[in-house]
Amino acid sequence: MSDWELAETFRSTSGEVRWGSLGPPGRDPVVLLHGTPFSSYVWRSVARALARDHQAFVWDMPGYGASEKSTGQDVSLAAQGRVFAELLAHWGLDEPLVVAHDFGGAVSLRAHLLHGARYRALALVDPVALAPWGSPFFRLVGEHPAVFEQLPPALHRALVREYVSSASSPGLHPAVLDRLVRPWLGDSGQAAFYRQIAQATQRHTDEIQDRYADITIPTLICWGEDDTWIPPEMGRELAARIPGARLEPLAGAGHLVQEDAPAELTAALSAFLQQHGAAR
Fold it and tell me: Is the pLDDT of residue 75 over 70?
């Protein structure tokens, strides 16, 4: 995985999923979930660091990154929650440690609360979890995906680059931005970009947010203090809803904390995962 290529394939109910793992098999497993419009690539530095003590599992959700993108594909939060539960069964992971960012936070919460997925501990990083969510741009695209799919490729590329860039507070390295934008280019990528926005509806978190008080596993909530996509106030509200949850603010980081403050995020996650890892 020197250039972050996911070598393994799993056929899920929502299409082919690409995945990989880092660290020797048999170590305490940790699974990392990405958000939208990203891929497992955002976890590359953190996953490699965690692999010193864990077997780290990473995957691109259906419709994202290197995974399948197809016309009519169900890439909704409901579908991704089911797929995650399927993947855990495929990997044979009964109670892994789970780390989830953005949209992946909602996926992990749905899998846990609705599909019986069990975790030893859960770390949420600027998650999509509480209403209201969705920027004016996000809502506009969701209402008119067919129109945006017809944008000339150069305009689409510029739109995606600007959108992805806005997730970082200090700004992304040009090579990182190129890599994050790449899966959304070309005919299939452009259609997939607007498809995933059109299917991302708040009702999928409305269905579960009143159940957060039922979460009994250790929970850490990390939040970039400069997040302009989901305000830090949401982190404080979420921590208040989950019994015993601890909030870890990260200074100088926007929504894409993995890129803005990788060392600080890794330190917070490592300490939490070590605290709640398997008994030695």
Answer: yes
79: tokens are 């579908």
The pTM is what? 0.96
Q: Is the peptide bond between 25 and the residue preceding it cis, with omega within 30 degrees of 0?
A: no
Question: Going by DSSP bridges, is the β-strand pair 55-60/97-101 parallel, antiparallel, or unpaired?
Answer: unpaired
Whole-number CA gyration radius for the chain: 17
- The yes-or-no verdict on residue 280 having pLDDT over 70 is no
Q: Which residues are CB-contacts of 17 (< 8 A; sequence separation ≥ 6)?
A: 9, 10, 11, 59, 60, 61, 62, 67, 68, 83, 87
* pLDDT (tens digit per residue) in 158-174: 999 999 999 999 999 99
Mean pLDDT of the chain: 95
What is d(CA 226, CA 151) in angstroms, rounded to the nearest whole number?
Answer: 31
Whether residue 106 is predicted with pLDDT greater than 90 in this model: the reply is: yes
Rounded distance between C-alpha atoms, residue 164 and residue 185, angstroms: 13
- Between CA 243 and CA 235 the distance in angstroms is 14
H helical segments located in the chain: 44-50, 77-91, 103-114, 136-143, 145-149, 153-165, 174-181, 186-199, 203-206, 232-241, 257-260, 262-275
Structure tokens at 97: 């440690």
Which amino acid is present at 165?
Answer: S
For residues 192-219, b (16+ Cβ closer than 10 Å) or e, as one string?
A: bbbbbbbbbebebbeebbeebeebebbb
Tokens representing 11 are 């056929």
Contact (Cβ atoms closer than 8 angstroms) between residue 141 and residue 159: no
Is residue 248 over pLDDT 70? yes
Q: Going by C-beta distance under 8 Å and a sequence separation of 6 or more, which residues neighbour residue 103?
A: 34, 35, 36, 77, 80, 128, 200
